[in-house]
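Reminder to self: tokens first, then the designed residues, so the page reads top to bottom the way the pipeline ran.
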């Protein structure tokens, strides 16, 4: 599985090519990070390093400032 990630914010969104709702989420993600550096990479590579963009709005936030 592939993911779209912002290396500046350390956020990512999973790419589901056949899911129209996911396309919207990716658009949202790319809009938010428009001026940042976005990369496409394997989901395995984002695990533990990036925060899930979709999960953020629901509940858990593991980051400690
Ligand atoms: Zn960003």
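Designed residues (65 positions):
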């Amino acid at each position: 599985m592939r993911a779209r990630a912002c290396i500046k914010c350390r956020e990512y969104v999973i790419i589901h090519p056949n899911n129209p709702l996911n396309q919207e989420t990716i658009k949202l993600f790319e809009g938010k990070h428009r001026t940042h550096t976005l990369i496409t990479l394997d989901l395995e590579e984002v695990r533990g390093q990036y925060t899930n963009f979709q999960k953020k709005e629901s509940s858990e936030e593991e980051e400690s400032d």
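The chain has one domain: 2-54.
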